[in-house]
Amino acid sequence: MLVSIILDIINNLDEERNKMNTTFLIALGFYLLLFMIIGLMDVKKIKTFNDYGMAGKDQGTFAVTTTLLATVLGASTTIGIVDTVYQIGFPGIWWLIFGALGLLLQSFILSEKVRETGADTLPHLARITMGRTAELLLALIIVISWIGVIAGQLVAMNSLVTFAIGRSSRIVFVVVSIIVLLYTMVGGQLSVVKTDKLQLIIIFAGIIICCLYLYLFKGGDTSSVTQGIELLNKDYRPMNLFTQFFVIGGVYFLGPDIMSRNFISKDEKTAKRSAFLAGIILLIFSVVITFTGMWVRANVTSDELGDSKALMYVIGLIPRPVGIILIFGLLSAILSSTDTCIINASTIFVKDVLGKEDISLVRITVGVIGMIATVLAVLGRGDILTLLTGAYSIYTPGVIFPLFIAIICYKKREIRKGIWILGPILGGILGIAGTYFGNALVQVGIPEGLLSYITLIGMGISLITSLLSIKRK
Questions:
Q1: Which domain holds residue 69?
Q2: Which of 61, 164, 166, 473 sits in a 20 to 30 Å window from 111, CA-based?
């Protein structure tokens, strides 16, 4: 009798899982079909390289703000943040707070200055301010490091697809990846901007509805959530705060994907306004996503969670309609960042490395970079935040301060280019060494404790070198 009851329960669970799988796959098909249609519709509107790579450089405040938010709200700022909050508590909010501060500082200090230059990409901005050598160097740093960013997003998508269909399916994952590459190839930045608007709505709907359901309907232990609100603890110390401010805040302040939204805006005021609005909205979102993670931390034990991602585990605790919305919210977060990263890295490679403005070459590069990142994701080379933090640890010491100094001094102070170029070279080398050759450095006698600060050391060296390059009046 007992065995019969257990078998009935298992059969019912399997039936529910099959229904969920079928619903997800059907919805996924329509979801991806819509994006392909958008890409195909935009083909006719693409007349020039600017149309394809910079969305015509005529986007208004609403378009720039939504695509900027959709770009920053990726796997790291949804799945990754909830995992981090589950592990270290409320201080996990700092990633997004520093991101929001980076956007606000960009709005006040850089947005108008950058847009005034008429640059198309971040390396192109380096060329305008510092010359061809600077353009080529920054382009190579960005393309190399951003393959890791793209792979990080795809690792998250692989995990999400596996969870949604109940088993690991490389076929489904590869098919979804190919469709993302195809609509990005076909429609370029114009399609990315349009799909970002839809994806942002789904992201907000999924996360907000999930958070409200957990606190208002699911209940559980909410008192531990309020008691656990702290900005620093034993797992997140002042040094972590200092490091993330520069590494994460720096990418949001002057990162290639963030600034690509500046380049597509129609004028300086639009660029400034959009960065400011995105920063404010990101601050609000940081509270919602962090409290979602805090609920999981208070109500789900580590044994219950197992190897699951915390936010994905929540899907099993909420009603199916809410779960479907959350799944597509997470998928939208991943894809909205992935397509932006791919089109930007590809445009930079063709325009700033090869020195060409050829749409066909960009499309080919989208395919090549996308497939490299897909292979890395399939091979499972690291988790979301590891891949992204590694990429940022290369980018920030090599680019942030040297380019910031170049922008501030443009048309105001003369810079010794020979000294300035040492900044991104030395910073980039330290970033690469710390990210990929940590074990080798320890073996040759570098203290292991020093490696955790190597990104900051690289940033410090690039800052000092850049400042020394400024000629005195």
A1: 18-43+57-380
A2: 473
